[in-house]
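Re: the multi-chain job from yesterday

Posting the exact lines I submitted so nobody has to dig through the queue logs.
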Amino acid sequence: MSFVQIRDLSKKFGETAVFADIAMTIEQGEVCVLVGPSGCGKTTLLRVMAGLAQPDTGSIRIAGRDVLGLAPHQRGIAMVFQNYALFPNMTVAQNISFALEQQGKRGADLAQRVAAMIDLMELGPRANARPAALSGGQKQRVALARALALEPQLLLLDEPLSALDAQIRKRLQVEFKRLQARIGFTAVFVTHDQEEALILGDRIAVMQSGRILQSGAPHEVYGAPASRAVAGFIGNINILEPQTVRHVFGQVSQDAWALHPETISLSPTPDAAKITAPGESTDRRLLGSTVRYSVLVQGVSLSVDVLSRPSLPPLAMGTRVFVEVNPADVRLLTD
Amino acid sequence: MRLDPLRLGLLAVLFAVLFLPIVAVGLNAFAVEWAGSVLPVGYTWGWFAQMVADPRFGQAVGNSLILALGSLLASSLTCVPAILAAHCYYPKLDRLLGGLVVLPYAVPGIVMALGLLRLYAGNYGIVLTGSPWLLIFGYIPLGASLYYMPMKSSLNALAVQDLLEAGYLLGVGDLKLQWRVILPCVRQGVVIGLILNFTLVISEFVYANLLVGGLFPTMQILMYVLRGGSGHLLSVLIMVYFVIVLIATTLVSLIVMRRKEAL
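And the result, structure tokens for all chains:
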């Protein structure tokens, strides 16, 4: 039996359904990332799991225990909020110890645990600072320390990195992964950032309009999106309707095609073993390790990612090329 | 920052407008005689000695302090929890409260005083007429807005809902959360409210005169009594009033500054 089991969970605000028929399982030690656009219901789902909101129907079991009737603090859950929710009048150490005091920890035991958490999160020099004196990244580490100090059965994180700048965000993503590998906590991580979801999740669940569209390992969801909606949200996938497939590549297909930008290659001459079509590069963006080209093929613009090599000059705008797709890389969208 | 002569001149005028009356009252309190000259003719502590020897002085200062402290206690115990509860738990009521707290200032003092007399004259089972309790409770509606504005300013800067929910997840109850987290965070607003209330009550005359009058003479009522007599004695009383307000606000400010340094 899975460590966390969510069944038929539904929630309405008035007549508006926030989410409906949510079913999800999470194994112990797994990080499940709920990813979806703003307003899709992922934060409300997290709040229902935490006990901060009540569902209309359904059940939530954590470690075999039905937690729906329990108060938030009785569920074995800790939560990291989007805006940290650190107690502004307390220092870093006091924020952590206040949490532990509620569990009845006192004296040397309490001090030892607080020190261990401060050490774990490398907050030593800032232990006596108040939240107002901390950077965004440090605040997030304190929030995580406060949550982990409670040794929760399930850690919930509500877009914890969304307020941080890109560089700190990337660093904290790495730290989060390292910490998770070290402690092995079970977590549900909410984000609207597809890249973050793919990096952090052992499993990702794509939500849209209050429903989970697809759930699975990151490579499964990214590599084989089950629907147009998932393909449209995860990555920068080219979605070609059957008539467009015929128009661009001259292929007959009952289903739409999902083509990942990195599975399309550009060549000066056509390769007979591949599906090819002539086109013209119209735009070029350097994304660091890759260059993203927009190639106009039969009036349809395709995104193509090519590895960036300093020794190879990038294609000039207006260069005529052949786009090539390996048939094995075509993903069919059946919805 | 360098100040040009025009700015310096404007500052000097502003300073003069603000402080000259106080300086003049102070000089008059020490003046042997002050008429027909720019400065007093001689200085003396005599008026102070005469004022202190007057039994009405001690009674008025004592009554004013009793009223001020009693009113502070009553208003802080009613207004502060009400404002916190409305902001944190009843946002709809909070909007209503925001309108209610300015009402006492929209209604003429005489109307409010008559309303309070009617309320506390036994018509509703509460008889407080002629006692300082009438003033202490009567000042609560006046004081509410003086807590409301600075406290709301502090509360609006906090993500209260998130803090409460973070507390609930830790197993902290509402009372403890308010006491340990929310109240310390809005302490500055509460202190500003306390100072403003103290100043309001100790300098208030209309309600004191209409509601209790000679039955519980305060400093303001004694000032009213003295207005037809010696201007020097009146100046002494006004100076004592200034000093009391100054000491109270300085004490509170020092406490706040010390707490802020500790943060």
